[in-house]
Design brief:
Strands 1-7-6-5-4-2-3 form a 7-stranded mixed sheet. It has one domain: Cytidine Deaminase, domain 2, CATH 3.40.140. The chain is α/β, with parallel strands linked by helices and 140 residues long. The chain is built from 3 helices and 7 strands, in the order E-H-E-E-H-E-H-E-E-E.
Amino acid sequence: MVLQVLKAHVEAIFAQASREYPDEACGVILGPAGLDRGEVLTPMVNSAHSPTFYEFESKELLALYRSVDDHDQEIVVIYHSHTETSAYPSRTDIAYASEPGAHYVLVSNRAEIAPKTEFRSFRIVDGVVTEENVEILDSF
């Protein structure tokens, strides 16, 4: 399994994580239904405003699902940052993973690895975490 992601999206995710630090940043990347190709980066508000947990703001989430339905899109990537731990799904991340077709991307911007960063992708299905390779592209 390989996630192909645009370099511009990777850079935007890290920029968002930096802006929202020390809270976790979160969002999605949308794409045409059935293609598994993320084209539209959509940052979301972390309504938990927490350094250890993220939760999409409910009104934004409702609007997101309406837009996905209206435009024949799907959620290709669900991403969030870990501010003090590695970019690996926590027990909470695994428990709340509810999109079996999505790539779950985690980035880490913890101080001990600065200026280096971690960008990792996982499939999480029925509580089973499988890491996948990531290919960063300039364009599709």
